[in-house]
Amino acid sequence: MRVLVVEDVRRLADDIAEGLRDQGMAVDVAYDGLTAAEKVAVTAYDVVVLDRDLPGLHGDVLCRQITRATDPAMVIMLTAAGSPGDRVAGLRLGADDYLGKPFHFSELVLRIRSLARRRPSARPRVLTGAGIELDPVLRTATRLGRPLRLSRKEFEVLAELLAAAPAPLSAEQLLEKVWDENADPFTKTVAVTIGRLRRRLGPPDVIVTVAGAGYRIRHDLEPA
């Protein structure tokens, strides 16, 4: 899941981003509205955590820009203006959810995951393929009933491959979906993660390398 945190209080923005990364999400951060607008224009985010009072470009304007896009991200407004009137105003702008400050971080995580599931292009609740069952909410994965012990990145890569199956995903696509904007596009981290994931899944190999296209889940391993 790719998330953008837009918050002008840098320490709060960084704390939220770090906490979400610990939950396995790929997170970018913007400290003002103009920077956020630039990021939204070039990256397909699943959810935007949006402060309302932003320098450069007000959060209300940015919210309208996001929700009028062709394939819009889901928006949760995260702001100190938490009265019922403020919440109604935020939702009228097109926000999908509204959470007032201060907030419990665990609630923010649950709301982000809920919004991602509600997105029109959202994937199924449980992802399956080649004998694998993966639940992104419960953070569990099994192969032929055997529990898989995966790192956060291995889990997210497997989720993206299952969601895309039978189509392949390139290393660049996986970098965009699983890692954040700080990932080096020339790094071998995707190949290394795929190698570890293959070992954890065990034989027969579930992930196929497609020359010139990337990686995909084998479709000829479905259990009878």
Write the layout of secondary structure elements.
Layout: E1 2-6, H1 10-22, E2 26-30, H2 33-42, E3 47-50, H3 59-67, E4 74-79, H4 84-92, E5 97-100, H5 105-118, E6 127-129, E7 132-135, E8 140-143, E9 146-147, H6 152-164, H7 171-178, H8 189-201, E10 207-210, E11 214-217
Description of the structure:
By secondary structure, the chain is of the alpha/beta class. The protein folds into two domains: 2-118, Rossmann fold, CATH 3.40.50.2300; 127-217, Winged helix-like DNA-binding domain superfamily/Winged helix DNA-binding domain (Arc Repressor Mutant, subunit A, Orthogonal Bundle). It is built from eight helices and eleven strands. A five-stranded parallel β-sheet has the order 2-1-3-4-5, sandwiched between helices. Strand 10 and strand 11 (214-217) form a beta hairpin. The radius of gyration is 18 Å and the shape is elongated. The two termini are 31 Å apart. The modification 4-aspartylphosphate is found at residue 51. Residues 124-219 form the OmpR/PhoB-type domain.
